[in-house]
User: Fold these one by one.
Assistant:
Number 1:
Amino acid sequence: MTPISQYGEFKLIEHITKAFPLFNPNTLKTIGDDAAVVKSEKDKVNVFSTDLLMEGVHFDLGYVPLKHLGYKAVTVNLSDIFAMNAVPYGITVGLAFSNRFPVEAIEELYEGVRAACSRYGVELLGGDTSSSRQGLVLAVTAYGSAPEEEIAYRNGAKANDLVCVTGDLGGAYAGFLVLEREKKTFLANPDLQPDLTFYDYVVGRQLKPESQPNILSKLREKGVKPTSMIDISDGLASELHHICGQSKCGVTIYADKLPIDYQTVSVAEEFNISPVTFALNGGEDYELLFTVDIGDFQKIKDIENVTIIGHITPDAGVLDIVLSPTQITPIEAQGFRHF
Amino acid sequence: MTPISQYGEFKLIEHITKAFPLFNPNTLKTIGDDAAVVKSEKDKVNVFSTDLLMEGVHFDLGYVPLKHLGYKAVTVNLSDIFAMNAVPYGITVGLAFSNRFPVEAIEELYEGVRAACSRYGVELLGGDTSSSRQGLVLAVTAYGSAPEEEIAYRNGAKANDLVCVTGDLGGAYAGFLVLEREKKTFLANPDLQPDLTFYDYVVGRQLKPESQPNILSKLREKGVKPTSMIDISDGLASELHHICGQSKCGVTIYADKLPIDYQTVSVAEEFNISPVTFALNGGEDYELLFTVDIGDFQKIKDIENVTIIGHITPDAGVLDIVLSPTQITPIEAQGFRHF
């Protein structure tokens, strides 16, 4: 293992970033100057989003591999750009870590960053590296662009719009519960190696979330513009409250329409929690929640990985979930409380 | 004092950011959606820069007021944008802090952020707020733009160019030494209140650095484009190495030309260190180091707060400082080693 002190900050950055290819001829400068330089795209608006990932709050290095952490840090951020119906261009990465980490650990983390950059075709534009007296800190800012008329805000939903989600929900939280349980088991008896074979899907959802930009492309192809959109980071319930709050409307969704993977259901049963609760309040799915005009029903009904889960109502602040034909309950926003 | 838990993340952000005015009609959306949205400027390139400020590494809350910290976090970042000869447009702020902080502390920090945003006319575009199990973390990303032909990289210096700096050097480090000394005195005897009257300038340089965009405007007015530019964050010596390394040239500077404030000189004497060492290796001055074609001498010689300290030579890798007519020494890059 190579101590960081053998490199120093500048050489470490050079060493780590030389493996990053450039994707776009508009990128004039990335690492190695005071700032990155990118040609701006004519007739487009720029979008920006920042996320922090803090050790002990957002991740536990006890079971999160560094490569996955790097990958997730990028995806989480790009998810915000996609949620504007924009196309991400590049990211900056601020990374702080203790000097107990060897160079190889940082390489592993950046392998994950690189894999995500390649997967989504975004540039590593720049960043900052610092030591940390505390835990590992990742601060990623993503930059993207879109024609102004394509931007989807949270405030455009209107009565009768269809409410849609991509992918499936609750899996990341199921994975989190499994990983926490296995960690406890392992700490109690280090000879028991965790077997996660039966949980591969939900553990993957937690450790290595993916965004679904291909669905946005399909919507564009079909001429559908979401009337509102948000990414599902804090749980469907919390995001529905954001959409309805900003759009001054209500919503009715149907529990039996919620897309939930069978593995998520099975974990929910193990933990004696309703899978619907996982889907509503689990968080970290990084799927997209969006609304479309009801006139677009024919255009979206057959898009793979898009599920219509309900509709917007004119009743501002009234958010309901239909659990059964006779049981309708208000949707409570729990979200993720850091403090 | 109001505990953060009384607000929660979303309300805290709303509470803190409502005081931020918008400066630019091109800003379509800031806080409150998945990402900020800004109209891009025609025929300009975008520039991006990220900096981390970590408690215990970059600042000591023992003597750094939160308001100053917020101000400095912004300035440090804008400094990188100015160093590209670009104009900053907006910032995103990632902030993580322990829930021991009351709301009032976060308000104070954001007052500093707001003061800096107003001072430099930049928007708070967005950000992220998280709790931290560890210390306070500030991650600021700045975004700006400029016509492509005006961007000043680090690699454009050429033989005979004049080497210039803005403002004066070494003051921030002098301030740092004074603050560290007073902290020790205070910890040893809490009844002794530190008297910083005689050190106001250097303490200000450390706690509340300012950028000098007006000098860049003057250069533009006079039709002078720096052939290379960098901001002085790690100390003049380190930055000269960056310029010469990337421009494949050498440099000769003159100790008696270095702009050093009398208070910096006086602190250097107290600590028995040469003021030239402060200027070369002190760091955190956030002044600009730039080179101009020798033909521009007449245009720049009378610009206030610009000092010509030497010239570029064709001898790649040969960096010298003339201490006296008979004493010439190589410039060693110490820089700031985090690890």
Number 2:
Amino acid sequence: MRIHVVNPNATRSMTEKIGAAARAAASAGTTVVAADVPSAPVSIEGYYDGALAVPGLLAAIAAAEADGADAHVIACFDDTGLDAARSLADAPVIGIGEAACHMASLIGGRFSVVTTLSRSVPILEQNLVRSGLDGRCGRVRAAEVPVLALEDPRSDARARVAAAIAAAIAEDGAEAIVLGCAGMADLATTYAQEFGVPVVEGVSAAVRLAEALAGLGLRTSKAGGWARPRPKPGGFEGTAAAV
Amino acid sequence: MRIHVVNPNATRSMTEKIGAAARAAASAGTTVVAADVPSAPVSIEGYYDGALAVPGLLAAIAAAEADGADAHVIACFDDTGLDAARSLADAPVIGIGEAACHMASLIGGRFSVVTTLSRSVPILEQNLVRSGLDGRCGRVRAAEVPVLALEDPRSDARARVAAAIAAAIAEDGAEAIVLGCAGMADLATTYAQEFGVPVVEGVSAAVRLAEALAGLGLRTSKAGGWARPRPKPGGFEGTAAAV
Amino acid sequence: MRIHVVNPNATRSMTEKIGAAARAAASAGTTVVAADVPSAPVSIEGYYDGALAVPGLLAAIAAAEADGADAHVIACFDDTGLDAARSLADAPVIGIGEAACHMASLIGGRFSVVTTLSRSVPILEQNLVRSGLDGRCGRVRAAEVPVLALEDPRSDARARVAAAIAAAIAEDGAEAIVLGCAGMADLATTYAQEFGVPVVEGVSAAVRLAEALAGLGLRTSKAGGWARPRPKPGGFEGTAAAV
Amino acid sequence: MRIHVVNPNATRSMTEKIGAAARAAASAGTTVVAADVPSAPVSIEGYYDGALAVPGLLAAIAAAEADGADAHVIACFDDTGLDAARSLADAPVIGIGEAACHMASLIGGRFSVVTTLSRSVPILEQNLVRSGLDGRCGRVRAAEVPVLALEDPRSDARARVAAAIAAAIAEDGAEAIVLGCAGMADLATTYAQEFGVPVVEGVSAAVRLAEALAGLGLRTSKAGGWARPRPKPGGFEGTAAAV
Amino acid sequence: MRIHVVNPNATRSMTEKIGAAARAAASAGTTVVAADVPSAPVSIEGYYDGALAVPGLLAAIAAAEADGADAHVIACFDDTGLDAARSLADAPVIGIGEAACHMASLIGGRFSVVTTLSRSVPILEQNLVRSGLDGRCGRVRAAEVPVLALEDPRSDARARVAAAIAAAIAEDGAEAIVLGCAGMADLATTYAQEFGVPVVEGVSAAVRLAEALAGLGLRTSKAGGWARPRPKPGGFEGTAAAV
Amino acid sequence: MRIHVVNPNATRSMTEKIGAAARAAASAGTTVVAADVPSAPVSIEGYYDGALAVPGLLAAIAAAEADGADAHVIACFDDTGLDAARSLADAPVIGIGEAACHMASLIGGRFSVVTTLSRSVPILEQNLVRSGLDGRCGRVRAAEVPVLALEDPRSDARARVAAAIAAAIAEDGAEAIVLGCAGMADLATTYAQEFGVPVVEGVSAAVRLAEALAGLGLRTSKAGGWARPRPKPGGFEGTAAAV
């Protein structure tokens, strides 16, 4: 099985961390192909960055689809461009944000999400409403850590995330924690041991969900909003692949 | 007052129709500047088309903001790129979809939306949840008319829309109708007379709401998800204006 | 355009302040006719006061409707008697509470309301559910200030309202503030400057929305709950005008 | 125990039917005092009629409260003036609409309401949201029967109500039926036998609930929205009793 | 009238307290038959205990139904086995949890529940969603008191419950308090006097509601999810009575 | 990896079909141990049957947990006893109903469920509310087929299920179908080909989800409602294993 994991920003070091997390989570027999989007911002911090990343992301989805990917993972916790990607693909497409929240809801009655910046909180809240899991989420909390600070071992990023986890358990009644950024993919085990509750990380959750869907032979429905893009006069439809 | 009305697709004839509707609705003293997005698809029919239109739309917003627009109107009923545009702008930004639904909720206890294609229905349903007006909406109905068929006087588009309106009144208990496509901007009066209920069209509704917000001196809050984009290492932030 | 602004209590000084706010907000060419309801309580503080105010309010609506008002504004933040007034009128009727919340939702992702007394909180919460905007509201907060204390420069009313605004920003994540009493109509600019977020006041918001609706030619739908009152045996229907 | 049952309209024959239903439902030892509101419309058909009935209704509540009523029942299915009445009374106040729906939810997983006119449907839908029972209600259906037609044995009112009940069972999955008008108080048993599902009528349900609350010593909380009306400068508070 | 009150645990002293509370609340002419479930755990603290109690509880319901009970009360605040019991019975079945919350919603605009252990909180939250009363509930609070500590006068159970009530009033805006355990049946009056808001206890509330339903002749609908159990090949249906 | 799949009824032929479906879905390296509950009813058709099945089911969970199962699957679409089983187990526990709905929500914007009997519909509706996926579900439809008729090749069960699927696509806008009974485990491929939309079956979905959770090292949180059962005076806690 081939799983295409696309980091929708342009930071190669994040792609490498994401790829490593994906490969560590994948079953034997699964090939992970990790890619990033060179035309995208170096990090996705809010609606604007996400919107600029999508055309390149869609081109990556189209290319991997043509290469025979069995499933796609969008490795930004905002689930950037997820609906558009599903329109483009026949294979299943999973966002790491929704993946982590679905998984968390199966092992915790209530979970809280700890993300980077407060500007991302409404995006994640809207995604939770969209998936239906908002009622299972205690609160989306921001650690107020820029995405790339997670890449910098000298920053206080890890301590800030830990403080937000502690608050989620104490104040939200969180029974499980969801780490709300792909850049936190290497921290789940540490926090799980520190806090004694399950900690779910999106990249690994999405890879496993993608394997599950592809293994069941399930493909994205084309019967509704995720129907294939309509051809346009002037051939616009092919544009994404050319970005 | 200067209101920037941007048609986020590349079809000039739609821009002209939208501009005319906007000018007809505007108060004395308001200047309407209508534009389109040449880099966008010729019509926005579903998630994929919408995603591709956004970077060019954001560049248009940035340019108009720099030119001193008092408010922006996004003239696609999907409210394409609305959150990202609000991040970029200090002036108010109004989508014609939300504008029509807010207005309809003030003169009808329950309204239904009649849009073009069924693939757009989930987009509009999600937007209604986002604005909070889903509980006021009886149903989002698709007339199964491609967007550009509305531009073609020989098509049966108008009859199909009329049939959907009739069904909305009979089956949904709709007390008002919202026309769910910028390409229907010239049809509201005709349908209102034919069906005897208020018919709300988005371009005119949005222009009036934009005037209202700008007239009150209200500007987009920068305190949450619509905070200005963060500068990126390598200067990515300026990219949209260069698309 | 003629807009009828009715203060549904009997306090003339509030009517004057409301009328001034309405005129300051109105466009050139709009005539504001401000009135109050002499048969009503001197202030509306809770369900009981509101219920007693309604028959006189309806008589005022009926009279202004007969005089050719293009729209009506009910200038109590409780939106007192709004549904009944809409039944009676063909012209649009806007409550200042709903008007402010609709406007705030367009320039802030989340807003909080600051009202006078805690007994009014459930009324405003119910109105938010009714309009659908409850999901956009962080919290309805009471400053614990009687309505008429706002008229008294020696009271600590302004400081109490400011404290509630500060709490809304810090604790609710409010990106915009809605002032929840017609008696606060003159305070919006001051607080906006003090707190750096948009502050929406209902009288001006409602006047602008009323202009927008009337300018669009939209009238209250008679197809559902706002159908005209049924004539009664014995001619009861005319009673309101005689109160 | 003394239960004050107030028909908030001016039709004496309805009051007599309501009083008979109340007495038939009451326990041994309960005295039912039935009254109507001479200053109100002859029937309550929509928001406007309801609003005009409230001041006289409140005066009736105040008088009965002073006379030592142990509980009050508002015998209009719209629960006309319920919140204002609760502000005025220390004894429990029950609306027949909410009473019937609470009871129906205890013996049927899903119930539908059959009321008189479609203009009343949004009122009842809002009341269901208010009580929280909307999720338990399949649909509020109008039989399109004017209230006073129920008093006229020559009308087809009973057949129309029966047709709506049949539709509720077949289409809504209703396991129980709520009769949505005080004027239907004498029909519950007939319909229950005809349709083989429980049929709940509001007057009897409310009398029994009122007995239950009063028997438990429960009184209306004064800690929130139902706090006693504030005294007004000029003594307005006493006005209701004088209407 | 005969009301069957079943304590679904095996602790006889709780049954006696429950029986006393039920008899104190019952009307003249009502016979209360209190029973417990010897095969059940000694207390119900969480999902697991509840699940083990149900077969014996259902046998008790079946036996009392055969003995001609006019209504059944399930005297655990978790409303243990309520849907299954309703399938088995024609007479009304009331859980003390739902009973208390329905009653509280009629005399308080917002109520909070104070229960024993935090592990029971999600059960009660789910029940509130099921009844529809979750929107009326400020918060379900745990006093962190084991059920049987309420039976022990030397424990600090009463003080802990009082502290939770105080917090509910101060922080949740609770206008009424619901005591969330059958073992608190004797404490309602004390707390009501101490805190000055209505305090609702489930056993008495359920007995009164059961009287009300039975007095109205209402029986559990067999038209939906509460249809009688289907006979099984091999006669399994009778098993419950044999537990 | 060892996955314990428990059919909570007593019908061995269903267990064999379920076991075959589970093994067909499992990855290489996964051992499926399928079991049934001899003390349970022969089929679970409604609340009552489900309640009687749970103690034996819990004993099976406890035994498999002691035997070192890496995950448990409850193979009844009602997710019978799921919360209690999660309290008992440290390994993840997945119900086939929730599993199928989570999976369907990832490949279809809206799905409908087709189950056996209408008495099961409210159970499934409540489970959807519990998981949060109710907003993603068009409708839960009953084919009116008894569970064991699915085992009988002469019955018209398959045609009835097909008719319900057709209705779901036409009337509910379902983009994917969920088969709502473990006894339909062998029918998914056939229906997917016949109807051209994804068809999700619960046993295979749950096995794959269980593998995913166990593979990620996620275990059931003990921090909230799924805390381990409290020891009881008299040692009741061990009872389930002895049933």
